[in-house]
Amino acid sequence: MPELDPMVYLGSQYYINTDDSPAQIRTGIGAMARAGLKLVRIFLQWTHVEPRRDQWDWAQYDALFTAAAEGGVGVIVTLTALHPPGWMMISF
Which of 13, 17, 23, 28 would you label with 3, given CA atoms 20 to 30 Å apart? Predict the structure, then answer.
């Protein structure tokens, strides 16, 4: 049986709102890094990255990944498609 690393990493969930600016996201992730958190879990939401059909905008997530890398914070991504973008006109 392989030995397990006894290190426990403390992290938190970070939720990106559709109107959060990249600067706000960098500030939030930076604060997490300064507080000593080593992991952040995010929900990558389709509606954030493709708000209009064939118009992609990764600025929010680019800011998060850049700030996390700079602060030594690992990112755990959960892809979500349960709530597709409104332009798809799909309701559940």
Answer: 13
DSSP at 44: E
Give pLDDT, residue 54.
Answer: 93
Beta bridge mates, 74: 39
Strand stretches in 1-92, DSSP E: 11-13, 39-45, 74-80
What are the two backbone dihedrals, phi and then psi, of residue 19, each rounded to the nearest 5 degrees? -100, 5
68 SS3 class: helix
Q: How confident is the model at residue 91 (pLDDT cuts 50, 70, 90)?
A: low
User: Position 57: which residue type?
Assistant: D
Per-residue model confidence as pLDDT tens digits over 28-70: 999 999 999 999 999 998 888 888 899 999 999 999 999 999 9
